[in-house]
Amino acid sequence: MSASISLGELRAAYRRTSSRIYRILEDGYDFSAEDAIIVALDRDALIIDAAFFVLIFGQIENRINELAAIKMETETRRRALREQKFEKRMELALPGVGNKSVRGEIAGWYSLRNDAAHGERLSEYNIDTVFERAEWLEAILGDSRTAVV
What we know:
elongated, mainly alpha, single chain
């Protein structure tokens, strides 16, 4: 099995996993399960969403890094890029005023990702929106690779 994970594989795994836990939650609500069980299942659903959010954001960060690296003229500059702050890499990958709101959206997710990845604060995540942004970046990256070749 390949070590890399595609966005499609992540999306399919998320759909399977989250649909199972939400079915269990619905059963709990339908059969008036104890409040403690419902609370635990709600927490489990949030943890699953957070885990997938962290994975998807990793995909977003990889694409931003690749987009920024394409703009570097030398291998030395590409290697040094990893030392740059995430916001700087985003500016290189998604320059201009037209991408300002996208950079702001992703910067907000960066903070949420750090919280979840370090076991601090979990939030509500709109996983579909995060997948859509990752797929959008994938399309830009594909176009950029084609333009370079």
